[in-house]
Amino acid sequence: DSLRDEASYVETNYLCAKMEGHEEGLAEGHAEGHAEGHAEGKEEGKEEGKEETTRTIAVKLIHQGVEIEIIKAVTGLSVAAIEDLVKSVR
Description:
Radius of gyration: 30 Å
Largest sheet: none
């Protein structure tokens, strides 16, 4: 009977430790995922900001009558992207 009690005690402790480890693992995984997601989102936001700035510059150059090839050289945008901007501003 005492062996059964001891086995039950050991099993209970094992299960508690396993659950605690599982919860800690989930918390750590969540924290790491959150940090990675935040960093990726910040990087994506920076890229979107750069792209928007590039398009804004291109639109200003289009309004000034600058040739597409010059806009391409200045902004790095493709001719197709610049032509799409030309269509959207007219």
